[in-house]
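Technical note accompanying the year-one report. For the benefit of new consortium partners, we illustrate the data format agreed upon in the data management plan: each record pairs a sequence with a structure-token string. No post-processing was applied to the example shown here.
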Amino acid sequence: MQCANMLLRKIVRSSVLPFAAQHGMKKDLFPLNRPLSLSLCLKQDKACEPSEKLDLDEWKKVMKSGLQEEVSETGSEPKEPSSLAAARETLEMWRLAGRAVPENISEEQLKTFMECPSKSAKKKYLKYLHLRELHKKSHKRKMDEKRERRLEEQDQASDTDETKKSSFLFLPSSTMEKAYHWRAARSMIFGQPLVFDMSYEKEMSVREVTNTVKQIVMGESCNRRTADPFHIHFCNFKEDSLYHREFIKHYREAWGKLLITVTDQCYTEIFPKDKLIYLTADSPKVMKKFDHDKIYIVGSMVDKSIKTGVSLARAKRLGLETAALPLEKYLLWSTGAKNLTLDQMMQILLTLKDTDDWKKALEFVPKRKYCGFVNKPVKEVKKTLDLINALKLRKEREKVEKRFARNHPKQYTLK
């Protein structure tokens, strides 16, 4: 046994260790468990032959170089930045805690989350993303259910073999889209311009900019489907702005194919000032009729905090004529501000352009904001409005009396 161990040590020292140190093959030749077993055998033989020592210098060099290569291999893998990784860990902790956190969040949204100034702002932003994700899921579910119902109806119709005869020609959606594009292309040459002022990004929050872009997209879709569309201009439009990023999210590859004019110039540099009219609800001048020779400007802004006078001040600084829609002249206004959404403004202007009828155009105003149209018997309508207001005041007075009686003794009740 001792002779075999001595022979093994001589073979390792003379041939195997120098060869592994020269060619870098220590990882394949000597796994971690083999040198341990070899060292145990050598320790057992050391008690028998204390004068004999094993030269382990080459072996140490081999093991150190192997560790360095393993560290370099693991370190070469790309890692996510520490700030983003910490933000993802925070989101995971909040999700486990039961807070409103979206399931999927992009890198851009994660950066926006990190840029929020306070913890409450971060919670509100995550709640907004969570609600938007739920809305998308519900919309997708409804569309899937609608598709399934349509397929079932088609199957039932095919089973019964009932063919409906019609004198109308069926046009596929692709043909209709070509017709819409042709109208939009014709409007870029012969159509009346309509300007959207895209210089209100600093006055709005991220959510308000997102809602603004959604309304503009809906308005552009309505404009493209009309018989005589406007030639839409996006003026004061900056590249890589929040407006730009939101438009790319909605249109994707079709953004570069839209038949509209997008420019970073101001509208005063493109059109003459005497033809420009800025439409704003704060204007003291009321619009009487639609002028086909004028160029109307609409401020691309969703103002949920009701910042009055922002668009009017901008128009006055530029020396432009302003106008407001005659809502009180044709509508019995009930409650709410007289600010309309951008897609509602587009539909009103398109109807005025085609018909010059204010009653048809103002039907796009939300029904909750007015009681009806102003007709000849105005006195009767005013009487009903006065009666409604009196009932409201009476209910409010009763609420105040009940609250006062609860908080004070009976001898001090309100008479």
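Partners are asked to follow this layout when depositing records. The mean pLDDT is 77.
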